[in-house]
Specification:
Helices cover about 10% and strands about 40% of the residues. It is mostly beta strands and about 130 residues long. The longest helix is centred in the last third of the chain and has 8 residues.
Length: about 130
């Protein structure tokens, strides 16, 4: 690196920097990474977010897609592939069917980081209470 001093003379030198990779974000729905959620609260959520926990810099991840599976007692599993973070199409229809005892699995969650890389995030699940 080099630069000018106040008196107009130049300086040059070198420094070693350590660079750390941005950690993987945590998937969340309504600020939660799984567990129990009320019917109304679950239906009110717009989609999945990818949140960096305890990270010192302003970096954001964008969810670019996920699979949503609904498990209801006595019914076959129903899965919808959703592009983007917000519920659309079949995924929105599955969310609208939420009732006590339903279980939702968010799987194959993919998020794109500020460095342009795509990260595979862990599965999260919610039981509707």
């Amino acid at each position: 690196m080099s630069g000018k001093k106040r008196d107009g003379s130049t300086y040059s030198g070198q420094a070693e920097f350590r660079v750390k990779r941005i950690p993987d974000p945590v998937p969340e729905v309504g600020g939660k990474s799984g567990g129990a959620m009320g019917t109304g609260e679950f239906k009110a959520q717009g989609g999945v977010a990818a949140i960096l926990k305890d990270f010192d810099f302003d970096a954001r991840f964008e969810v670019i897609g996920f699979e949503l599976t609904l498990a209801e007692r006595g019914q076959d599993l129903q899965t919808a592939v959703n592009p983007g973070a917000r519920y659309t199409g079949q995924a929105a229809n599955l969310v609208a069917r939420a009732k006590v005892g339903s279980i939702y699995y968010f799987d194959n969650i993919r998020a794109k980081g500020p460095d342009g890389t795509t990260r595979q995030l862990p599965t999260i699940s919610f039981k509707i209470k």
